Amino acid sequence: MEVGSLPVELWRVILAYLPLPDLGRCCQVCRAWRELILSLDNTRWRQLCLGCPECRHPNWPSQPHLEPPSWREALKQHALATRTWTQNGPELQSSACLLFFRRRKDRRVWHVGPGCEFETLRGALGVVGPYDRVVLHPGVYEEQAEVALKVPVELVGLGRLGEVSLLVCMEQQCPTARLCNLVFMPPWFSTVVYKTSWGHVQLDNCNFEGAQLQIRGPGTCQARFCSFSQGSSAHLLGVVLSLLDSCDFSGSDTASVTVEGPPVLERNWACKHLAGLARTFPSCGMSGNNGSSPRGQLTGSTGGHQPSGNNVKKEHVSIEDWQKRTGVDAVCQGTVIEDGWSDGEHSEGEEESRDGEKTNTKHPFIMDYKIPCDNHGLSHLLKPRADGSLPLASSPDPPPVTPEPLTLQQELERDPEAQMLAASTLGCILRRCLFREGKGGVHLSNYGQARLEGNVFRGLNYAVRCIQNSTMLRNEVCECRASGVFLRLSAQGLIAENNIHSNGEAGLDIRKGANPIICNKIHSGLRSGVVVLGNGKGSIRSNQIYNNKEAGVYILFSGNPVVGNHIFQGQAAGIAINENGRGMITNVIKENQWGGVDIRRGGDPILRNNYICYGFSDGVVVGERGRGLIEGNHVYNKGCGVWVMSSSLPQLLGNYITHNCMYGLAVFCRKDPENIEAREGNWPGQEGIGGEGGSGERRGVEGEGREGQENLNEEGELFAWESDLDSEDERHSARRSISVALVESNCMSYNGVGLYVKSSEPLNVFANLVNSNRGTGIAVLQSSQLTRLVTNCILENVRGGVTVEKDCRVELRGNGIYENSGHGVGFSGNGQIVENDVVGNRGYGIQVSGNADIKWVLENPPPRPLASSPSGLSSSRYPSRLGISMTTRISATVESGCHSGSMFCSIL
């Protein structure tokens, strides 16, 4: 009969009455019939799949509300899996025709129950032949001694699951066996209801209640659609390969699955078949499908972060948009920097400028001459690029884009070790299982190996406790009372594309030399996202870590990971490093409530090529006894760019500290009541900050205490990321040995104040570019030890270039101080002013006041040739006294307390 002779809808109604064998025969008639049979996926194939007593919903137990991509394919996979236990016959080496005519095994069916051939299970097992089926009729079967399976056999419960219960302890002493549709409960003499040490057992649609399944290598196990409840567990010792698929574990008193011991060298016949089944699961390069999306969309995510996707797209964000989103406008328009700032007396020209042209920070006249500032600090970074665009140091807006995180596939392509881990199938494979409401999920110890794929861990004390090796791909770990994943004792492994969220402690806890590869979504935790401590290491890369109540990544007690992630929208610091924590830190850290990076108490990381931006507080906080190499970072935030406390020893090299609403770099005493008051938001016009975001020193101390409360009990190019993943020795060999905090080759532009110093310890500030800040370029308000300002370029700041208050010890040497709207240098302290160029400032070149004690020195500098002709001027218009052969010395009289008449810097 032709298919086209009837409407397709009518054919589907007719074919819905056919059983499975007849559907298969119809599918082989022709292509048109095959397409017609395949079109029954959501009707007849669905009925057949759900009507099979040995087959539960394909997405049971974690997502039974979701339909599979194909009901027919799900039924096919079930049929193939149920026959795995019979595929242990000898391989035929003869011709294909003999294989075709191979005789099938003769199988008998035995019935056990009241009124049947046998009333007891032991009686039936005494007479069964190889591969016979024993059908157990509804009832409870109890044995008072251990039962041995000595020939391959299939035990099947008749009726619905739960109608056949076994109170037995079975030991398998044969190559293979299958148990289906049974409920196992422990007998009075043992909690172990089934064990094997060399054969293969297949468990389909069985329940374990308060019982234990025990598999010892080279024995193997395949469990599908089974429930382990009321303290039941699976214990696998030295297994080469076992597969637990679509199982439900609940109410465990210890770990639901324990994998112990290294895989034994010997293998049984089932290993190759289990390996084939393991490869049918989607490859690790595919997108996660098991709850990988966060709960709800995040709003207000500057920079285009949408956590529900695998990739974070770039979004162009102007400083105006960011200010509107974060409420920064009020801060920028009315802070102490503009309304309450005082750096000494102002010149008449400066006062006129403030009254008449408050918004104009440039000179209203054309200078007739100037000394070029090309050779000072980093002023070359102000020159337009070849394409005409402005570099970051001279751009009025922060960088419009941040780097995107790499996908797992990209991480695997550049890491052969991770590729090998992703492809490994050794030990226990758990996939599509649900672990809920118990003490633990999976425990690996004594070199046991496991692969966890597509599982859900919910409401446990902990999800995974890994002592050695594991691979975790696309799992959901949530609502654990302690940390989600513990890694211990040099544990290796790949933990990738998991959705780890809403846990009571850290999402991942890494310690005791553990060194895994981490690439996940870690969010919404009640404490930190990732904790690395106790010599823990790890490559924590391309994670999206967001909305955690405490630090996104917390490193302490000699933890030393490589960290390269997107860390955003956290309720505390992005990364916290203290208690001698280290690490290589290369991240995008944005929109966090507290500091982007917080370093304290011996913390000594390398922060390189980070984007620390759009935070509601400070970018980097270096607290008491903090150290670290802070190099090549982009820092622009609502508070300070970098906040350094006394008793710390950081190295700041080559950073872009720009567009921060308060100070670019602030160096403060650790305890300073006045400073606390200021940082709490009591400045004029400071109301726009509000809350914790505006409290700095006080907030920093509270943050330090709060981070210390982390429960650490055992149970409780756009930038070059990739090039920074060096070995530990390479990381630390690049550091200089310093005894004084060092600030060198940084750009501090468009901040409130470029550099603010109020400290009691020495400081070296070398070769920095400080330009276009809304307040003073460099302000030294307290400096009992020597602060050295050497070869910096300080230009076009709205207030003065350099301000030094009384009793401060400062050395100014070889600086270029150009075109600032106030005085070039306002000096009331003690120290030296040596070989500086102070040119084109609207106030005095150098204003010395009070009882300043200054040594003016000009030690015969070499000629300073003009690098280029000033715009609009011909060589004949240069004043003759500015010959290029030698910089002119100028003598000046100064106020009391100075060495009057001395020769000092070039002041034009």
From TrEMBL:
GO BP annotation list: regulation of apoptotic process; ubiquitin-dependent protein catabolic process
Keywords, ordered alphabetically: Repeat
Renumbered residue ranges of the record's region Disordered: 286-316, 338-363, 380-405, 679-713
Signal peptide: none
Skewed-composition ranges (Basic and acidic residues): 695-709
Highest taxon in the source lineage: Eukaryota
Chain ranges of the F-box domain: 1-48
InterPro entries: Beta_helix, F-box-like_dom_sf, F-box_dom, NosD_dom, PbH1, Pectin_lyas_fold, Pectin_lyase_fold/virulence, SCF-Subunits/Alg-Epimerases
Keyword Repeat: yes
The UniProt record lists the keyword Repeat: yes
One Pfam family, short name: NosD
Amino acid composition bias (Polar residues), ranges on this chain: 286-311
Cited PANTHER family: F-BOX ONLY PROTEIN, F-BOX ONLY PROTEIN 10
The protein's name in its UniProt record: F-box protein 10
Provenance organism: Seriola dumerili (Greater amberjack)
